[in-house]
Amino acid sequence: MKRIKIAELLRTEPVGTEVTVKGWVKAFRNNQFIALNDGSTSNNIQVVVDFEHTDEATLARIKFGAAISAKGLLIESQGKGQKVELKATELEILGDCNPDEFPLQPKKQSLEFLRENAHLRFRTNTFAAVFRIRHALAFAIHKFFNDKGFFYLHTPVITSSDAEGAGEMFRVTTLELDKPPRTESGEIDFSKDFFGRSTNLTVSGQLEGELAAMALGEIYTFGPTFRAENSNTTRHLAEFWMIEPEVAFNDLNDNMNLAEEMLQYVINYALEHCADDLKILEERLIEEEKSKPQEQRSEMSLTEKLRFVIDNEFVKITYTEAIDILKNSTPNKKGKFQYPVEGWGTDLQSEHERFLVEKHFKKPVILTNYPAAIKAFYMRQDEPKEGVPGPTVSAMDILFPGIGEIVGGSQREERYDRLVKRMGEMHIPEHELSWYLDTRRFGSCPHAGFGLGFERLILFVTGMTNIRDVIAFPRYPGSAEF
Ligand code: 4AD
Ligand code: MG
Q: What domains can you pick out in the chain, each with its CATH number?
């Protein structure tokens, strides 16, 4: 008999029919009641065992974590907490689970412990909820762009370009590390390498995305990106997933609106489609916050926070305005910032971003028109403006409560001469990006795009606090297990 998934069973409640369910034991009470879960939903089905007619040996094998198959009649439940239950007529143990050896226990275990057992943590209610939501968000992103007529573009994972120019790349090579071929001047000869040149894992699909946008009009990428930055934080991964839309004829304003619309759409999608999982995570968060002092607890519950972002327009201010706010802020005047805000031109630290979002505006904030000196070469150069001390670019960063930067993007420099000049200033060799410059030589046009860090979005939606808990197999300095 074909198994029915618990999600479907609970949705249709086909009372009176004979069904087979398979899953893992979450609990076994009174030698009679099994809470069974198959991953299709956070909800369990109660399987009632006819213990008088089940042999002792089988009953003894119904342990937390064991995989079982149960066949029986679906009836209205006598107990409270569930509408239906399965009166089992046949029970089969598919896989035993020895409680003395199984690292997971039917009680709350720390996230650190579960991170060390990441191969098993899917079995916990929290992580199953996180990964079902991760799936829903990925799907929502594709749906959002597809419904708008964007084309999904697959950009390369191995590339010879450093899109962000930040030099935080993982090299890809087949050269032998202990005796690489050398040029006459003694340098490593990458012309002998697999691709005939030096290559790395991509840090961003943007530059390739721009090429396609300048023909297809509206594209987006959604793939893994890699950064060899030595950041051991709760917000950084060495391998993370990024969504990068790129749109011909869009300016900075269009770009901000697209990003805001996308974020509100996908968050709303999660609220509409992941209610059960969000409830589990909301309860988890309430428990976690109990260990914090009152003033550090958040004023809103998880779903209230998500609703709030959907219902309120994001604040849009320039970098220059943000610096003014920060300079005159109480924590800055009282010396509470680890990095005091002295003047225009410095990069914002996450403490500054979080002050703006969490304390000052209490809303997501889009910061625009950053100093050119702290942003990438491809961003469009602004005209000088009164009251702005130095050159700026049409950049935008979206800052979220509890997260900091969730999106980074810009209008692109479409003017060939300006772009080449900027590359020169930043010591980016023209010949390495001749293919990129060609778009500016042939039918160039204004265009804009941004990158959304997928794991940072999941952090926000799930209320988890460590980015290593929202990707199945996290890669970070010193760790690449599995
Ligand atoms: O701001 P970033 O570096 O922008 C770009 O890569 C552009 N090429 C995007 C574009 O305009 N098409 O990265 C974009 C986003 C950040 O806002 C952040 O959410 C996320 O990617 N991100 C990371 N997420 C996890 N771990 C890291 N190490 C990340 N670095 C960036
Ligand atoms: Mg950025």
A: 6-102 (2.40.50.140), 123-167+203-469 (3.30.930.10)
